[in-house]
Amino acid sequence: MPRRRRRWRPRPVPSRASRTGYGHHLSTAPAHEVFPIATTADPAALTAALDLHAAAKISYAEMSRALATAGIERWTFDTEVLTITYYDLAGTPVLSEPVN
Fold this sequence. Notes:
- By secondary structure, this protein is of the alpha+beta class.
- The protein has a domain at about 35-100: YdfO-like (YdfO-like fold), CATH 3.30.1810.
- It has helices at about 15-20, 45-55, 60-70; strands at about 75-80, 85, 95-100.
- The chain has a 3-stranded antiparallel β-sheet, with no helix packed on it.
- A hairpin with a 4-residue loop joins strand 1 and strand 2.
- The radius of gyration is 22 Å and the shape is elongated.
Protein backbone atom coordinates (compact mmCIF):
# COMPACT_ATOMS: atom_id res chain seq x y z
CA MET A 1 0.00 0.00 0.00
CA PRO A 2 1.49 3.38 -0.98
CA ARG A 3 2.47 5.72 1.77
CA ARG A 4 0.32 8.78 2.13
CA ARG A 5 2.20 12.08 1.82
CA ARG A 6 1.67 14.83 4.35
CA ARG A 7 0.49 18.17 3.16
CA TRP A 8 2.99 21.00 3.54
CA ARG A 9 1.97 23.55 6.13
CA PRO A 10 3.77 26.82 6.77
CA ARG A 11 5.41 27.17 10.13
CA PRO A 12 3.92 29.75 12.45
CA VAL A 13 5.71 33.07 12.34
CA PRO A 14 7.27 33.91 15.71
CA SER A 15 6.02 37.01 17.43
CA ARG A 16 7.92 40.24 16.94
CA ALA A 17 9.10 40.07 20.54
CA SER A 18 10.86 36.74 20.02
CA ARG A 19 12.41 37.82 16.69
CA THR A 20 13.95 41.01 18.07
CA GLY A 21 14.90 39.75 21.51
CA TYR A 22 12.51 42.22 23.15
CA GLY A 23 12.21 41.51 26.81
CA HIS A 24 15.60 39.83 27.04
CA HIS A 25 18.46 41.07 29.19
CA LEU A 26 22.13 40.99 28.31
CA SER A 27 24.96 41.94 30.62
CA THR A 28 28.69 41.46 30.37
CA ALA A 29 31.56 41.11 32.77
CA PRO A 30 33.29 44.36 33.74
CA ALA A 31 35.88 45.60 31.25
CA HIS A 32 37.81 47.48 33.95
CA GLU A 33 38.07 47.94 37.72
CA VAL A 34 35.13 49.33 39.68
CA PHE A 35 35.17 53.14 39.94
CA PRO A 36 33.67 55.13 42.81
CA ILE A 37 30.49 56.90 41.67
CA ALA A 38 29.73 60.49 42.66
CA THR A 39 26.55 60.85 44.69
CA THR A 40 25.15 63.64 42.51
CA ALA A 41 24.91 63.62 38.73
CA ASP A 42 26.67 66.27 36.67
CA PRO A 43 25.09 66.37 33.16
CA ALA A 44 27.74 68.80 31.85
CA ALA A 45 30.58 66.47 32.90
CA LEU A 46 28.66 63.55 31.37
CA THR A 47 28.39 65.18 27.95
CA ALA A 48 32.02 66.36 28.11
CA ALA A 49 33.21 62.78 28.75
CA LEU A 50 31.02 61.43 25.94
CA ASP A 51 32.35 64.07 23.53
CA LEU A 52 35.95 63.17 24.38
CA HIS A 53 35.27 59.49 23.86
CA ALA A 54 33.45 60.14 20.56
CA ALA A 55 36.50 62.10 19.37
CA ALA A 56 38.73 59.11 20.33
CA LYS A 57 40.65 61.25 22.83
CA ILE A 58 39.99 58.91 25.77
CA SER A 59 39.65 55.13 26.04
CA TYR A 60 36.57 53.21 27.14
CA ALA A 61 38.02 52.77 30.64
CA GLU A 62 38.80 56.50 30.88
CA MET A 63 35.29 57.32 29.71
CA SER A 64 33.84 54.95 32.31
CA ARG A 65 35.91 56.62 35.04
CA ALA A 66 34.74 60.07 33.86
CA LEU A 67 31.10 58.92 33.84
CA ALA A 68 31.46 57.59 37.40
CA THR A 69 32.96 60.93 38.43
CA ALA A 70 29.96 62.60 36.76
CA GLY A 71 27.61 60.50 38.92
CA ILE A 72 26.60 57.94 36.28
CA GLU A 73 26.10 54.46 37.71
CA ARG A 74 25.11 52.62 34.52
CA TRP A 75 23.87 53.02 30.98
CA THR A 76 21.56 50.94 28.83
CA PHE A 77 21.02 50.47 25.11
CA ASP A 78 17.49 50.16 23.76
CA THR A 79 17.80 48.22 20.53
CA GLU A 80 14.15 48.77 19.62
CA VAL A 81 14.30 52.57 19.45
CA LEU A 82 18.11 52.81 19.16
CA THR A 83 18.81 54.98 22.18
CA ILE A 84 21.34 54.93 25.00
CA THR A 85 20.28 56.16 28.42
CA TYR A 86 22.60 57.10 31.30
CA TYR A 87 21.37 56.69 34.92
CA ASP A 88 22.50 58.13 38.25
CA LEU A 89 22.75 56.21 41.54
CA ALA A 90 19.03 56.67 42.24
CA GLY A 91 18.19 55.07 38.87
CA THR A 92 16.98 58.36 37.43
CA PRO A 93 17.72 58.89 33.73
CA VAL A 94 20.20 61.77 33.34
CA LEU A 95 20.57 61.71 29.55
CA SER A 96 18.99 59.73 26.73
CA GLU A 97 20.29 60.11 23.20
CA PRO A 98 19.96 58.33 19.87
CA VAL A 99 22.61 55.79 18.92
CA ASN A 100 24.44 56.82 15.76
